[in-house]
Amino acid sequence: MPAARAQNANALEMSVNAAYILTMKTSILPVTLALFGCAGPALSQTAPIAPVTDTTPQIEVRRAIIVEPAPVVSIDDLPRTLPPEVKRVYTECQVPGNVIAITFDDGPHPQNTPRLLDLLKERGIKAPFFLIGKSAATWPDIVRRIVAEGHEIGNHTWSHPQLTSLKESRVLSELQATHDAIVKAGGVAPLLYRPPYGATRLSQQKLIHDHFQYPAIMWDVDPLDWQQPRTVAKVHDRVLARTHSGSIILCHDIHEPTVDAMPSTLDELMAKGFHFVTVTQLINLEARSAPPQPPPVAATTSAPADSRAL
Ligand code: NI
To answer: Longest Cα pair distance anywhere in the chain, in angstroms?
Structure first.
């Protein structure tokens, strides 16, 4: 929150909380002053009040209704690190307000990713990029630009295999090589991963979380830009129709029509009041907004059987 706004909010809160409204039958001026936060010393709790007698005007003393200011969340203040309590899988987040994350997979691409970065920069939008390790190693300058312009990078494996068909050692090596390539190119360690095709086993989610502390980031809005026909209208229409508060949108910046669709898609999402954040920011906003959890109860059932989650 800007300093001036914070001061204004504090001043308003203090004046309303401290004010005791004196309603004098002969005047409404003190009430008016208190309602507008202008209550001066004469209206304070310690102000002397003349004793009520039969010969003095009747004075009624009422305590003002305490008005709690609405919580103000500044998107820029949301952390870009994960909060202490993180779920293993996110498909969307439960957040207040129209806050969303639009994610881009399978890059970096030598032409489409820089073009997308220009579009995001023009609009002041920050986005998560789930990079393929071998592409990050091939185009490290683009990785550096993604980081320098304030976007977030997630791990999308080295060669985009379907993890459900791999042994544990190969799952870990795919992610480790990509982690290292992103650190080498961009100087930052990824905090998240997205399994190719969204395919992973519960046992693999645990393995990856234990090893890298990554949560798996899925999506709730899929414009099907990975599927033919790839058209601007399909991406635009599906994203605009399906995005809601807390959505995680899946896009692929390796496909030219997807990047072509971004100017109108992003502008219309902003016109609808949506604000864009990174996935870690969205997770932090959900963590801050969640009601207090009851204390854990000892498990009485066995763990769910390993199954494929797409
Ligand atoms: Ni992918």
So the answer is: 93
7 CA to middle of ligand 1, Å? 46
Beta carbons within 8 Å of 10's beta carbon, 6+ residues apart: none
Cβ-proximal residues to 170 (8 Å cutoff; 6+ apart), any chain = 161
Q: What are the distances in angstroms from CA 34 to CA 28, 70, 164, 240, 290? A: 10, 19, 65, 45, 34
Highest mean pLDDT: which range of 3-17, 54-68, 181-195: 181-195
Four-CA torsion 296, 301, 303, 308, nearest 10 degrees:
-110
Query: Does the annotation count 211 as an active-site position?
Result: no
**128 DSSP β-pair partners:** 152
Q: How far is the CA of 226 from the centre of ligand 1 (A)?
A: 9
How confident is residue 55, by pLDDT bands cut at 50, 70 and 90?
A: low
Q: How far apart are CA 88 and CA 288, in angstroms?
A: 17
Question: Which of left, alpha, beta for 157 (phi over 0: left; psi -120 to 50: alpha)?
Answer: left
Task: Based on the residue annotation, tell me whether 105 is a catalytic residue of this protein.
Answer: yes
